[in-house]
Amino acid sequence: MKRKKFAFVLLLAATLLATAGCSMLEQVNTTLNYATEATGFVNDANRFAEQVPLLAEQALTDPQTIDRLTAEFESMKERIATFNALQAPAFAEDIHAQLVQYNETIQGQIDDYLQQIDQNVIDLEQLANAPMLETIRNMASLVQQIEQLGQ
Q1: Residue range 81-130, pLDDT digits in tens
Q2: How far apart are CA 116 and CA 136, in angstroms?
Q3: Tens digits of residue pLDDT in 52-91
Q4: Quick one: average pLDDT of 5-32?
Q5: Confidence tier at 5 by pLDDT (50, 70, 90)
Q6: How far is CA 57 from CA 24, 42, 54, 92, in A?
């Protein structure tokens, strides 16, 4: 009887340790996944910020470039929505909240530019120096903090 009781206690202890280990491993995976997603998102936003002035400049001489510019805006809006829906780990919530706030600003500006494009009144020269591009550059300063989460 003592052996059965001992075996049961040993099995219970092993189960508890395995469960705690799995939980810890899951937390690490969640953190790494979020850090990877957030870093990828910020990198995508930086590429967008580099593309927009170039496309705006090209659109001054080639009206067909407006379609590419519109597609870039739409793609960035989708990427923003996907990123904003991510569930950040508890200790990354502040960084995620900052990124979401930046994203809301960028998304509003993208909507304004899309509306201007639809109405054929967009100032392409102004777009090359758009405030949203500075907002994206500010987001890039968070990359280092995000990468530290992944370590």
Answers
A1: 999 999 988 878 898 999 999 999 999 999 999 999 999 888 888 887 88
A2: 21
A3: 999 988 988 888 899 999 999 999 999 999 999 999 888 7
A4: 49
A5: very low
A6: 50, 23, 5, 38
What CA–CA distance (Å, rounded) separates 134 from 49? 8
Residues 49 and 80: their CA atoms lie apart, in Å, by 14
pTM to 2 decimals?
0.76
What is the total residue count of the chain? 151
Residue 21: how many CB atoms within 10 A of its CB? 10
Q: What angle do CA 28, 29, 32 make, to 5 degrees?
A: 85
Buried b (16+ CB within 10 A) or exposed e, 52-90: bbebbebbeeeeebbeebbebbeebbebbeebeeeebbe
* Unique residue bearing structure tokens 């900052």: 98
Q: How far is CA 69 from CA 92, 130, 142, in A?
A: 33, 14, 26
One-letter amino acid at 48 equals F
